Amino acid sequence: MSREPTQLQPWEPFDSLTSMRDVMSRLLEESLVGAPRLSTMLGRTFPLDVFEDDNQFIIEATLPGVRPDALQITATDSGITIHASVKREDHETGKGFYVRRERFEGEMTRSVTLSAPIDASKVNASYENGVLKLTVPKAETGKPKQIQVQVR
After folding, report:
1. What is the pLDDT of residue 141?
2. Domain count, the chain
3. Which pLDDT value is given to residue 145?
4. Same domain for 24 and 99
5. Rounded to the nearest 5 degrees, what angle is found at the Cα of 49, between the Cα atoms of 48 and 52?
6. Shared-domain flag, residues 37 and 96
């Protein structure tokens, strides 16, 4: 009875580290301390949703406590920038003091680059109950065109 010799496999010390790196990356991306979520929790930015159909984009940004006159919206051919200023009322009366102060005060800016050119002159903005809604029409050059096939 003869046995074939076992082949030795070279040990690669970094093979196991690659999977560890992937696990750590995923953990950091999904944790509460990820960069986008942390800045949102600290009040230095604001959450927004972007919806797209054939003719337009709809952007909804949550901005509670921001006055409409403290919003500045800039549109370019390829995107939107929303800038908001938040000024909190000072309650210093000499009779009391803050025990905790967590609400954000300052300026916040979000820029969104859109996947198609837009018609910046036709952007419509409305603000209700702390939600800014932008209706952003696509430019004619950015809309898909149907091409008819001609039979000869």
Report:
1. 79
2. 2
3. 76
4. no
5. 145
6. no
- Write the CA distances from 102 to 43, 44, 98, 146, integer angstroms: 9, 12, 10, 53
Would residue 72 count as lying in a domain?
A: yes
- On whether the CB atoms of residues 133 and 127 are closer than 8 A, the answer is yes
Q: Which amino acid is at 128?
A: E
From the list 127, 132, 123, the residue with the least C-alpha distance to 78 is: 123
Q: Tell me, what's the pLDDT at 133? A: 96
Span between the terminal Cα atoms of the chain, in Å? 77
CA nearest 122: which of 111, 134, 109, 110?
A: 134
Q: Which amino acid is at 99?
A: V
Q: 124 and 71, same structural domain?
A: yes
Cβ neighbours of residue 131 under 8 Å, at least 6 residues apart? 60, 61, 62, 63
User: Along the chain (152 residues), what's the average pLDDT of each consecutive run of 10 residues?
Assistant: 68 64 67 50 76 94 90 92 84 72 82 91 93 93 77 86
Question: What is the chain's length?
Answer: 152
Q: Which residue has the tokens 């972007």?
A: 50
Q: Are residues 112 and 73 in the same domain?
A: yes
